[in-house]
Structure formats: structure tokens, C-alpha cells
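Listing S7. Sequence submitted for prediction.
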Amino acid sequence: MHAVVIAGAFIDRPAADAELPDLSERVAGMPGFVAAYWIALPDEEAHAVIVFDSEQGAQALAGAPHGGPSSPVSVSAIKVGEVIGRA
């Protein structure tokens, strides 16, 4: 398994919350999708961890467009890594 780890910051938290159901549905429909977690941290930090059954699936999401001028979240980093354990 491989995960996409996305780091960013909320620009407009209520708008991000409103968009999350649609985003969740689109991500869950991607080939190889396993699980996804969107995380709100203190100081307006926004993170996501999205797991796929293959590196190919993770790379497909990592290579897709993220954010943009009207996005409620600014993305600062996107990384793909191998999942080496889970509980």
C-alpha cells in the first residue's frame, strides 16, 4: 500500500467543510482507494492522508490538480510514501 500525504492550511474552514463530502466521494471513487483521513490541526493547519492499494493509485492522486485561486485550502506539500504498518 502507498499513501498520499498532503499538507496545507485553511483559508476558509467553513467552505472547506462544505466541500468535503464531494471531495470524499471523488477520492473514494479512484482506482485502488483504501481509506482517507482529512485532519484539522491547530493554527489552521490542514492535512490529509489518503491510502491506495498501489503506488500507481497514490501517484495518480498526487499528480492531480490541488488547490487553486478559489480553493478554501492552500496546499504546501504533497508526498507519496509506502505504508509500512497499520493497526
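Caption to Listing S7: primary sequence and predicted C-alpha cells for the chain studied. The chain is about 30% helix and 40% strand. The two ends are 14 Å apart (CA to CA).
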